[in-house]
């Protein structure tokens, strides 16, 4: 195989190469790759693609005409490696952040002290479309609102980690993290053990244990189900995978019924009471009696059962107020307010478009900014200033002036790179990282790995699968 010279590295941070050559953490992997010829590497990449195809590991991309296109999730066989030292910083920073975000959710749906004391503007909360007044005052089990979180991280030009966004509603991608590892075991059976890579396969067991612990009934074997919108949802493969891994029923709204403020599952042997619902359904579709009256995906009466404490919902309803991109700017203030600590992980600098001075700064430097809609995800509603046309930037300015609450801006940060096998050659591509945190009565556990997402298009900083991105296995080496 042709060598990838460190001189090919750009001015940003590359995970495999420094200006002195191959980093110590990658040395053994790099030597293994160097010992494989072009044909062997190409065959391994094809083997990985075939395994994804045969196992039905897919996601769905929706086009403008609402037609879904099912695709294999692109997987690059070169792992992304993070040292134990770096991982300890990441894990401690995520735990700190989630503790503060959970305290914020508990506060904002009860006393709202953070608003009363002027830390966060009341209008920012009131204008958030994912602030759900209907669940105000609901007592959630153990005061835990966030049970599973996917915190998106990037590395800057010096290798420093930044939090890009918090995903606290129905974070996706766990199945790809787990399947990526299984594929790696198949194509590089010896590399994982020889590099002392931390295990991720116990995720379903840990999560299932947390789900059981949330049961409102004190019984030895509570009923836990996974509620899916159905086969046409873009993440349906993941729903089936996780239900199977945890050994719990996969249900749709039509499989559940509420009677006397309790939730029951329809079975061939009659109704069975449901104690915990891991829902992969957005808030507004959960209960047509409370939210969208025309929703056929939810369960009529579910929120009443939830309010009375007869069923636990994972994650809690209303978490979207905490991962609103406008609220994101205040997370460092939350950490200081609730915990009296300095943030371990930094936010990406964020400009709030409701602030006139910050807006004027953004407008004057738009070619260096990424403009984001505060309640979009998946890479949608985003304008990269360095690639946008003048017409696109002018339209963005008009939209921002018309509704400043709906936008934030951030400086474009050159994401770190990792070599990828593309057309039989190693080429540098930008990546981010989504570690997964599981939060239960016994504390927070960060899965030692996560989903590394790759912008497969040369020069692109957009890693989302819906925008043509792929993924890598993520190794935390001991």
TrEMBL record:
<feature type="domain" description="Circularly permuted ATP-grasp type 2">
    <location>
        <begin position="79"/>
        <end position="455"/>
    </location>
</feature>
<dbReference type="InterPro" id="IPR016450">
    <property type="entry name" value="UCP005522"/>
</dbReference>
<dbReference type="InterPro" id="IPR025841">
    <property type="entry name" value="CP_ATPgrasp_2"/>
</dbReference>
<dbReference type="Pfam" id="PF14403">
    <property type="entry name" value="CP_ATPgrasp_2"/>
</dbReference>
<dbReference type="InterPro" id="IPR051680">
    <property type="entry name" value="ATP-dep_Glu-Cys_Ligase-2"/>
</dbReference>
<protein>
    <recommendedName>
        <fullName>Circularly permuted ATP-grasp type 2 domain-containing protein</fullName>
    </recommendedName>
</protein>
């Amino acid at each position: 195989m042709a060598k990838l010279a460190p001189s090919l590295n750009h001015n940003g941070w590359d995970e495999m190469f420094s200006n002195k050559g191959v980093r110590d953490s990658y040395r053994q992997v790099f030597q293994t790759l160097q010992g494989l010829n072009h044909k062997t590497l190409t065959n391994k990449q094809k083997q990985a693609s075939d395994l994804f195809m045969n196992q039905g590991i897919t996601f769905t991309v929706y086009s403008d005409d609402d037609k879904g296109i099912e695709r294999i999730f692109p997987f690059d066989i070169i792992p992304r490696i993070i040292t134990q030292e770096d991982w300890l910083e990441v894990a401690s920073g995520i735990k700190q952040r989630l503790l503060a975000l959970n305290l914020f959710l508990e506060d904002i749906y009860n006393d709202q002290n953070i608003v009363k004391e002027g830390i966060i503007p009341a209008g920012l909360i009131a204008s958030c479309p994912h602030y759900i007044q209907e669940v105000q005052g609901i007592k959630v089990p153990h005061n835990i609102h966030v049970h599973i979180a996917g915190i998106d991280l990037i590395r800057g030009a010096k290798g420093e980690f930044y939090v890009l966004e918090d995903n606290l509603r129905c974070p996706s991608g766990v199945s790809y993290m787990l399947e990526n590892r299984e594929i790696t075991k198949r194509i590089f059976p010896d590399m994982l053990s020889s590099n002392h890579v931390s295990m991720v396969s116990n995720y379903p067991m840990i999560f299932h244990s947390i789900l059981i612990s949330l049961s409102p009934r004190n019984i030895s074997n509570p009923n836990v189900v996974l509620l899916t919108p159905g086969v046409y949802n873009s993440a349906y493969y993941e729903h089936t995978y996780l239900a199977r891994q945890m050994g719990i029923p996969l249900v749709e709204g039509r499989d559940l019924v509420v009677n006397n403020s309790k939730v029951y599952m329809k079975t061939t042997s009659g109704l069975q009471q449901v104690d915990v619902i891991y829902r992969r359904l957005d808030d507004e579709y959960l209960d047509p009696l409370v939210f969208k009256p025309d929703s056929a995906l939810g369960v009529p009466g579910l929120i009443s059962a939830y309010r009375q404490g007869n069923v636990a919902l994972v994650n809690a309803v209303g978490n979207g107020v905490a991962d609103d991109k406008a609220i994101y700017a205040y997370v460092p203030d939350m950490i200081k307010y609730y915990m009296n600590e300095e943030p371990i992980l930094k936010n990406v600098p964020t400009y709030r478009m409701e602030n006139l001075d910050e807006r004027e700064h953004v407008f004057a430097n738009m070619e260096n900014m990424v403009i984001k809609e505060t309640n979009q995800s998946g890479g949608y509603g985003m304008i990269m200033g360095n690639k946008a046309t003048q017409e696109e930037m002018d339209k963005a300015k008009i939209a921002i002036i018309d509704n400043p609450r709906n936008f934030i801006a951030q400086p474009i940060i050159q994401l770190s790179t990792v070599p990828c096998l593309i057309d039989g050659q190693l080429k540098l591509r930008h990546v981010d990282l989504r570690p997964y945190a599981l939060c239960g009565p016994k504390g927070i556990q960060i899965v030692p790995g996560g989903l590394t997402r790759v912008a497969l298009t040369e020069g692109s900083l957009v890693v989302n699968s819906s925008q043509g991105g792929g993924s890598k296995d993520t190794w935390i080496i001991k």
